[in-house]
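so the lab meeting is tmrw and i was supposed to have these ready like two days ago... anyway. pasting both below. for each one the top line is the aa sequence and the line under it is the structure tokens. i havent really looked at them closely yet so no promises
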Amino acid sequence: MKKIYLCGITAVPPNKEIHKTALGATETVSWEYAKDILEVIAKLKEESVKIYAIEQVEKAIMLNDFKVKPNEKYALIFGNEVKGVQQEAINLCDGVIEIPQLGSKHSLNISVSAGIVIWDLFQKMD
């Protein structure tokens, strides 16, 4: 089952700002709130889900080089727009994916990052 875990300071439905942009998606997308991402990672690992943080760190796999394996379940962790994914969470992940960026400013809005990564992985699925 596909589910979105909302963690930490992320707003959860019902929320006026989410309602304004989701246009009803909150009624059709399965979601669950968890206070701590580390608990979510532990739960997903028990279910044999491969977990990747989306972050800029040493030894990250560039998104264009990431290969999607058939029949594998994936979870993606997107961090806080200012602080990113906490190091403890990164340490528990199966890997880290970085969105290639040109220029001197290497920061993307979380919604833009999610859109890029999810679309790219969707395109790579068989």
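ok protien two:
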Amino acid sequence: MLIIRPIRSSDYEALHRIAEESGHGFTSLPVNEKLLKSKIARVEASFQKDIIESPFDEGYLMVLEDTDTQEVVGTCGLEAAVGMEDAFYHYRLGTEVYHSKQIDVRNEAETLTLCHDYTGAAELCTLFLRDTYRKNNNGRMLSRSRFLFLAQHAHRFGDTVIAEMRGDCDAQGNSPFYGWLQKNFIGIDFVEADYLSGLGKKAFMAEMMPKHAVYVCLLPEEAQKVIGEVHTNTRPALNLLEAEGFRWRGYVDIFDGGPTVECNLNDIRSVRESRLLNVTIGEMPEATSKFILSNTLLKDYRATSALLKISDDSDEVILSPELAAALLVEQDQQVRILAL
């Protein structure tokens, strides 16, 4: 059985392996022992906070465990409110209009302006699934399970939810968008800049990034073409988020130009459509519809997928003793479900 649960300190080796496998552009998991252990400790502290007056710097990183092998095979994460401790930079794509009555000419010029507009927003992040498990809707289950957690614990997150989509880059991690920035401003290559950002060492951004709006038309053509474009491997993830109601509002990553999409938490389709049902433990009836289901706990959060027989007007679901035990739920407790 595949079970999603909060990460714990004993998962460090597995997380380090995933950080290595995830490759360039996966900023949230740099291959660095100190940072990864610090991330796990921060997540454990976040899950231990029983009372949250308002979301701040909490992080909720979960792992996908194959209970048959006790192997961690994937991750998915949520940030409660970005930019509260460290600056959270984006470029905002805008337009400047130039018009002269004297010569009867009107021109529009796209600009990129450095900003912190998403400060306080919640973030979907750190989604990774090992190659051998990319089948049977496992990736969809892992990604969408986060919406059950958002629905159950909405008060722990910012009202707006964002997701940074990986931008266009080659197999070596070189970004066409970053090339002009490296040459004219920062002076270090993309992989190093991305790695430093993942370590939280972001002072160089404020020190070396252009202070004024950048005219898109002045960038090299190859850089212009990838603004707002996603990496080929990221397209399925973007399609899934767009189906949930996420939209691009003109914000892009400052390094690779990839789009950041957003949606109000309560407008996310899976948040709206998830349901709370009362558990009856017994023999499960035959079913053909697959659901994601989770318990309603915090530090003992568990989620998985299963074939369930549920009618639209029912407030009850029958779970086998094995499935109930895996989800840490008992008779008459509740689970949150979502059609997969």
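from a quick look at the 2nd one: The chain has a mean pLDDT of 91. Residues 33-48 form the longest helix (16 residues). will dig more after coffe
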